[in-house]
């Protein structure tokens, strides 16, 4: 039996076709896929995350918790950011040293207001090393989904190692599927039929990820 036959058989069972429908999707659907690939230490997992983030053209920075505010201020200054969107639950010390005017995330913010902002700073829910993916779930330190899609520059803080997992199945175990999940693998990019890459079409043109340790 080929892999194609196996996959089509599972589809038929799920659709109540030939082979019959599963009694329960929780127990009768084969979920024997690997939860992660390989056996890595915590340090190796964090290194893999940094490597894959960079491979997706994100800019990766490392710092310690006491230096986080200074690091964010430096990145905003290097970008020339004069305004920054601030989620309601962002720790105030993260932007205490930044010389930028905050725009607080509110339901009343218009797309035009967000489009005029230089940068946004958020935390994250979890980061996946194997795919170089950061997941936001709309928590107070991440804000509404739109504030990370409209501004052209996104600084995202990942606490290591506690927010880093090896693979997608491990990330799903930590996430609430009822929340507004945004999965980010590098800056926004797309390609036309001639494979010309264009960045910033449906999200930030520049993604900077800070891996912060030592909290």
Automatic annotation (TrEMBL):
InterPro entries membership: FTHF_cligase-like_sf, LUD_dom, NagB/RpiA_transferase-like
LUD domain location: 48-212
Descriptive protein name: LUD domain-containing protein
